[in-house]
């Protein structure tokens, strides 16, 4: 078996160009470096250097072997850095998954506080539908997830973050902005931006319009609440969305009005049960709750007890 000291001596010679310089780098003697190189050649069966008077010339085998050695040392360097981050605790890595509505709004605001508190943490953010996010967390592709619904079949730990009533969104100068509450009858003749018919939540809104006998004028369909709000701001129609989705548009001339009958939106944070005491996950959950409490307060809502 090759020893690490032999690999290290070979690498030092390749980088420095001589056994003397390599010995200085490794804080050892030149004969020790030469002995390590000879042993490495013996163990590998490779001729790594041509011995010329006063110098060693790497062979093609040495250059090929050196590429592999460099890859290994890069991996060791990564492990060393990871160990240092973990030792500092403020280090480490967290992979977060979220449904689109939360990934585009809440998550960036959570990250601003989370990264300020733990500047050494590296964070990776992914977005997908609720079932996809749950699957990522279940197989530990991601450490923690933010979803709009939970499925106990995944066997994950979860905490209820919020329950809010949907709102009707419109430009501030729209005629319906004068009303305190919007009903299906108010939207009878308005261009409407809807979830696609296959999306979860479409039927909740659709049922209220069917019960009221209102046939909506659906101009556009989109799965993404951020796109919905942008389309509303372009004057392409009105819509009914989770009020958290509207927060990024508060200063762009869009307003919200309560919609009746109510349509409930839920939010949950999920993570593997066996990682309930993980320090980074616990810190992230706490930060999510802190930021969300402020946002819900600005909407006149309360977080679950």
Shape, principal axes of CA atoms: elongated
Please report the number of helical segments: 10
Largest sheet, if any?
5 strands, mixed
Order of helical and strand elements: HHHEEHEHHEHEEEEHEHEEEH
Rg computed from alpha carbons, rounded to a whole number of angstroms: 30 Å
Q: Domain count, please report it.
A: 3
**What percentage of residues falls in helices of 4 or more residues?**
40-55%
How are the strands of the biggest sheet laid out side by side? 4-3-5-12-6
Q: What is the C-level CATH assignment of the largest domain?
A: Alpha Beta
The name of the CATH superfamily of the largest domain reads: Periplasmic binding protein-like II
**CATH structural fold name of the largest domain:** D-Maltodextrin-Binding Protein, domain 2
Give the total of beta strands: 12
**Structural class estimated from helices and strands:** alpha/beta
| First and last CA, distance | 60 Å
Poorly predicted sequence stretches spanning 5 or more consecutive residues: none
In what range is the share of β-strand residues?
15-25%
Q: Work out the oligomeric state of the chains in this entry.
A: single chain
Question: What's the rounded overall pLDDT mean?
Answer: 88
Keywords: DNA-binding, Transcription, Transcription regulation
Protein name: LysR family transcriptional regulator
Pfam families: HTH_1 (PF00126), LysR_substrate (PF03466)
GO molecular function: DNA-binding transcription factor activity; sequence-specific DNA binding
């Amino acid at each position: 078996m090759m020893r690490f000291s032999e690999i290290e001596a070979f690498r030092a010679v390749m980088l420095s160009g001589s056994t003397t310089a390599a010995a200085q780098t490794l804080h050892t003697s030149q004969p020790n470096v030469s002995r390590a190189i000879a042993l490495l050649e013996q163990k590998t069966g490779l001729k790594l250097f041509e011995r010329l008077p006063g110098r060693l010339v790497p062979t093609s085998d040495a250059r090929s072997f050196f590429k592999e050695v460099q890859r290994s040392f890069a991996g060791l360097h990564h492990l060393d850095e990871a160990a240092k981050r973990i030792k500092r605790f403020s280090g480490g890595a967290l992979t977060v998954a979220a449904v689109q509505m939360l990934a585009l709004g809440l998550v960036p605001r959570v990250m601003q506080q989370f990264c300020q508190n733990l500047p050494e943490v590296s964070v990776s953010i992914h977005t997908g539908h609720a079932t996809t996010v749950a699957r990522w967390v279940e197989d530990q592709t991601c450490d923690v997830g933010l979803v709009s619904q939970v499925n106990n079949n995944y066997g994950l730990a979860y905490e209820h973050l919020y329950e809010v009533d949907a709102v009707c969104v419109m430009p501030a100068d729209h005629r319906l902005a004068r009303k305190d509450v919007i009903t299906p009858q108010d939207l009878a003749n308005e261009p409407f931006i809807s979830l696609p018919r296959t999306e979860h939540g479409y039927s909740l809104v659709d049922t209220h319009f069917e019960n009221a006998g209102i046939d909506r004028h659906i101009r556009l369909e989109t799965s993404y609440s951020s796109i919905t709000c942008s389309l509303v701001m372009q004057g392409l129609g009105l819509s009914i969305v989770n009020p958290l989705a509207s927060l990024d548009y508060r200063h762009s001339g869009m307003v919200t009005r309560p919609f009746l009958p109510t349509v409930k939106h839920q939010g949950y944070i999920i993570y593997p049960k066996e990682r309930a005491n993980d320090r980074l996950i616990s810190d992230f959950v706490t930060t999510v709750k802190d930021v969300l409490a402020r946002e819900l307060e600005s909407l006149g809502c309360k977080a679950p007890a």
